[in-house]
Design brief:
The protein has twelve helices and 13 strands. With about 350 residues, the chain is α/β, with parallel strands linked by helices. The N and C termini lie far apart (about 50 Å). It has a domain of about 230 residues: 3-Layer(aba) Sandwich (Rossmann fold), CATH 3.40.50. The strands form four sheets. It has a seven-stranded parallel beta sheet with strand order 3-2-1-4-5-6-11, with helices on both faces. It binds nicotinamide-adenine-dinucleotide and 2'deoxy-thymidine-5'-diphospho-alpha-D-glucose. 2'deoxy-thymidine-5'-diphospho-alpha-D-glucose (DAU) binds next to helix 6 and strand 8.
């Protein structure tokens, strides 16, 4: 089985590459990644010498490069993780989000149509459903919840989902889509909530909580997400959408307090800053469908996963210190000074 994994040098994609090489040692995994600011080749260091792994630096929007790779590899499956993924960046500058997340998806699917494919899997997000009110804890996102996006990021992901469904209906492309809640774990880029708070706390820097910190996210350990996608590409029904989430809703402020406690840092580091524009209040996934059809259940409880994650950041300081000492510093300055 030949599998092209796009965005495999990023957070979830790299964890997926590691998972697949371990779970299916007979498969060939080809990682296609543009290596944007969020992609890090050093993450893939441990598998570079594996004869069943190949890394190709390319942009999913580059039709010639993508078609050339399909010509060479004739993949059975494509799993598309490649995306611009950070909501705050999309609010600053939406253009690249539309280009990569929508046009890139189209280019990949055109290659799938030309060369033939057993499955094209689109990695999507719960953010396509918009948000839920804080005072209705009985409400959850199901696969039937209408798309109702808030940010340029989530709008670009929803547009891609619609395009994927259109390619299924119009051209019969064998697709699946997964919509997952917030992931956390190793190799999470330090611009996102959990790694940012760990890095800042370790440096005794202010912990910038947006608004009142009462927004709720539904956190899932990244390995559980990877296992769900593995199940969907093998056993999921063609044309279907699967929600992925672990019923683990938490307020941002409570997450930050846990990180302070685990690192033995004072809560006085917490600083409330100007809220994100259009900030979604609550995400909560109903994962009944993937549980009933594919037997998937999350395996890592948040209490364990957050400890594992903090331990990983303590043991792999050079990975994230290299990132935050480079170009990322300019981003941090722009987003957080005078906020
Ligand atoms: P990430 O930002 O950490 O990684 C994205 C990767 O895609 C990087 O390696 C980057 O170099 C690559 N990339 C970006 N543009 C590219 C292009 N034009 N061509 C080729 N490669 C390109 O993202 P992530 O958090 O790992 O998210 C991966 C996917 O999962 C995204 O599609 C995202 O929408 C989705 N998702 C993320 C979460 C989450 O909590 N992080 C939850 C649900 C869904
Ligand atoms: O729900 C899935 C989505 O989760 C994915 O589709 C996105 O790719 C991924 O980035 C993530 O989006 P969020 O916007 O939820 O994640 P982020 O880590 O940016 O923020 C989590 C929450 O924490 C959100 O309510 C904003 C808040 N926050 C974030 C940062 C970076 C802060 O309060 N302070 C911060 O400095």
């Amino acid at each position: 089985m030949n599998i092209i994994v796009t965005g495999g040098a990023g957070f979830i994609g790299s964890n997926f590459v590691f998972h697949m090489l371990k779970a299916h040692p007979e498969y060939r995994i080809i990682c296609l990644d543009k290596l944007t600011y969020a992609g890090n080749l050093s993450t893939l260091e441990p598998v570079m010498a594996n004869p069943n792994f190949r890394f190709v630096k390319a942009d999913i929007c580059d039709r010639d490069a993508v078609f050339q790779l399909f010509e060479e590899e004739h993949p059975d499956i494509v799993v598309n993780f490649a995306a611009e993924s950070h909501v705050d960046r999309s609010i600053e500058d939406p253009g690249i989000f539309l280009q990569t997340n929508i046009v890139g998806t189209q280019v990949l699917m055109d290659a799938c149509r030309k060369y033939g494919i057993k499955r094209y899997h689109q990695v999507s997000t719960d953010e396509v459903y918009g948000d839920l009110p804080l005072d209705r804890p009985d409400l959850f996102f199901t696969e039937e919840t209408p798309l109702h996006t808030s940010s340029p990021y989530s709008s670009s992901k929803a547009a891609a989902d619609l395009l994927v469904q259109a390619y299924h209906r119009t051209y019969g492309l064998p697709i699946t889509i997964s919509r997952c809640s917030n992931n956390y774990g190793p190799y999470h880029f330090p611009e996102k909530l959990i790694p940012l708070m760990i890095a800042n706390a370790l440096a005794d820097k202010p912990l910038p909580v947006y608004g009142e910190g009462i927004n709720v996210r539904d956190w899932l350990y990244v390995e559980d997400h990877c296992k769900a996608i593995d199940l969907i590409i093998h056993n999921g029904r063609e044309g279907e959408v699967y929600n992925i989430g672990g019923h683990n809703e938490m307020r941002n402020i409570d997450i930050v307090k846990i990180i302070c406690k685990e690192l033995n840092k004072p809560e006085s580091l917490i600083t409330y800053v100007t809220d994100r524009k259009g900030h979604d209040m609550r995400y909560a996934i109903d994962p009944t469908k993937i549980h009933n059809e594919l037997g998937w259940l999350p395996e890592t409880k948040f209490a364990d996963g957050i400890k594992l994650t903090i331990q990983w950041y303590l043991e792999n300081r050079s990975w994230w210190e290299t990132i935050i000492s480079g170009e990322y510093q300019n981003y941090y300055e722009k987003m957080y000074s005078n906020r």
